[in-house]
Specification:
126 residues, alpha+beta, HIT family, subunit A, three-stranded antiparallel sheet, two-stranded antiparallel ribbon, 3 helices, globular
């Protein structure tokens, strides 16, 4: 999991498999367990950031289902959380961001540092 250098949303995360495969059903048992654990870790860190149930949109990118081979596709998942500075301050895309270029409210490097330094134990269990 990483915060991509092109991140627009604060605390945006890209989850990429280490092994090249195209879709979720190609995961072996160890990868399935690792995937579940990293999903848990990401969502706990999101919740811990502002000590709230952290909202996010996510999506999994997989090979097309057209029955053809697609060796160019690499399984990955995106997380787009809208919270910016607190549990009540959200990022909203406005006209110039939607039509031209998005404004970064926090650098990807700063987001990555903040998320990395959060505890792995959920704030409600501390």
């Amino acid at each position: 999991a990483l915060v991509p250098f092109w991140a627009i949303w604060p605390y945006e995360i890209l989850l990429i498999s280490k092994r090249h495969f195209g879709n979720i059903i190609e995961m072996n048992s160890a990868e399935t367990i690792s995937f579940a654990l990293i999903l848990k870790q990401i969502t706990i860190k999101f919740d811990n950031l502002f000590e709230t149930s952290f909202p996010y949109s996510s999506g999994i990118h997989q090979t097309p289902t057209d029955g053809k081979e697609h060796p160019e596709w690499h399984f990955h998942m995106h997380f787009y959380p809208p919270l910016l500075r607190s549990a009540s301050v959200k990022k909203f895309m406005v006209g110039y961001e939607m039509m031209a270029e998005a404004q970064r409210d926090i650098s990807p490097e700063k987001s990555a540092e903040m998320l990395r330094n959060l505890p792995d134990l959920h704030y409600k269990k501390v």
